[in-house]
Amino acid sequence: MTGATVRFSNVVKEYPGGTRGLDGVDLELTGGEFVALLGPSGCGKTTALRSLAGLETVTSGRIMVDGDDVSTVPVNRRDIGMVFQSYSLFPHMTAAENVEFGLRMRRVPATERRERAAASLELVGLAHLGARYAHQLSGGQQQRVALARALVTRPRVLLLDEPLSALDAKVRVALRDEIRALQTELGITTLFVTHDQEEALAVADRVAVMRAGRIEQIGTPEELYGRPASAFVADFVGLSNRLPGVVAGDRVSVLGSELPLLDQAAASGHVEAFVRPEDVVLAADGIPATVVSTSFLGSLRRTVVELESGERMTVQHSVDDRPGAGERVHVRFAGAPVAVAAL
Amino acid sequence: MTATASAAAVHVAGDVGTARSRRRLPAWLGLTPFALYVLLFLAIPTVLAIATGFVDGEGAFTLENLAALGDPVILGTFLDSFWVSAVTAVAGAVLGALVCYALLGLRPDGAVRSVVDSAASVLAQFGGVMLAFAFIATIGLQGVVTVLLADVFGINLFADGVWLYQVPGLLLPYLYFQVPLMVITFMPSLEGLKPQWAEATATLGGNRFVFWTRIAMPILAPSFLGSVLLLFANAFSSYATAAALISQGSQIVPLQIRGALISETVLGRENLAGALALGMVLVMVVLMTAYSLLQSRTERWQR
To answer: Residue A270: inside a domain, yes or no?
Structure first.
């Protein structure tokens, strides 16, 4: 199965009063691609997704699916599968009846309907729970059924509107990986909205970071993390230490250390530099600091230190190093390029 | 766990235990006055009233009062009560549901919504002499609207008889409090419909008609039927409005009970009132049983 292409061309969504939910969004999804829309609350990511679904009407611009302009096509004729943030199973229907619903709308014969619904439930690992009602299923199971319901009609595009946000951490990670595996297997073009950067970076082929109705940067997770196009992206994607610095030529001076700039055109003079915790190391000598707290994160440890100037920094290091609170240590920069923003 | 930590845990557990027992006591105390009130002024009088249906004027056991329930006049009264209650319950429920649907389009915190909510709460309790007077003053024999229609358009509202003062005349006044009662009881259910259900229906290929007929209505049905039952009971037991409007005869059961208790023309039938009360209770029991049977069909998908 080859997924459909999706294109947003200068899409604007203006609300009464002039506020813009989408302010000229340009975005392209290739067939079978998994793209995550990432951003803080109110950045327009859900509006973009709902516009593609047809649940929001756009003010101007075009939304194309496989070359067809769907901007004015009613939602029930867009051939879109959607999983919602809050549980949206119909409570008076069993899981199997929920999954059959879309097929019923397409007048699929009863026998085929039941077979396809069973196959779809099998796909999400819930074939044995088809007779259960929504309230008899856990949150994770409900979202799996919702996924089966969205996929059973073989839609051109799958839309996921923060489908994991109501689940507890362990289920969230498991279902996240299952969704990605399923998407890869089916090859369905998928747009996934989330405010959880870790989630977006973990599953998406590409991530579009949104801010104030616009796409700030779109790229692979590695590009976004390693080469953020703006201070906003650097700050929003992954952890960063925000430190004062002074740009001189192609370098920025931070706490007495000269560090290479990611983007020389970003700013000049006094700036705010964004240094990743893994680009700061505990060392025998360097900038003196006092340990404030330390957190064990499984394969690594993050330690917050306070410099003599009063600045606080997060250092990511090996779990073998176990500095205690109040301990005197030294830190230094690893020398990786850093993003800066004008003050 | 260290000794100190264990002690702390025990201490905390002890606190929780004490707090639980503290919480239980006020809960019982809080319910007691209401339970006593219900017992003294509802349960005991109901049992006594019904019991009087089984004794004669001398206090001896008899089934004569009960047999009187089969009297064609009494049966007719029950029938009138039943149809007035059924018509105003169903019409009130449908009209009230439509009002609720219209209210859904308004902002929940908006001024119009607040006014309608408040008005519905007040008007639902507006039955009685005041309501009867309001109707007499507007569409009574000499009411403002009646006179206006007769003078200006030559329309005689009472050309076919003085219907306002008979059983059919109860329909309009009853609807006056039935519709607001439906609004306040049914609105929370309608608001409980998740927007995502409508959106999911749409993304799966359904339109608004499909949403309302296949999703919303089945989900709302138990609540709607419950409200109809409440409205029926409300009308069936309503007394003051009917008493103020109908001065001739006892055409519905509550008026029949009044007649049996205080009639100066038919003496010695006080205990018939108890049998009539038993009849009313039986009607409600039958309806509630029917509702329970319906409800049990939806329980499997309701929490």
So the answer is: yes
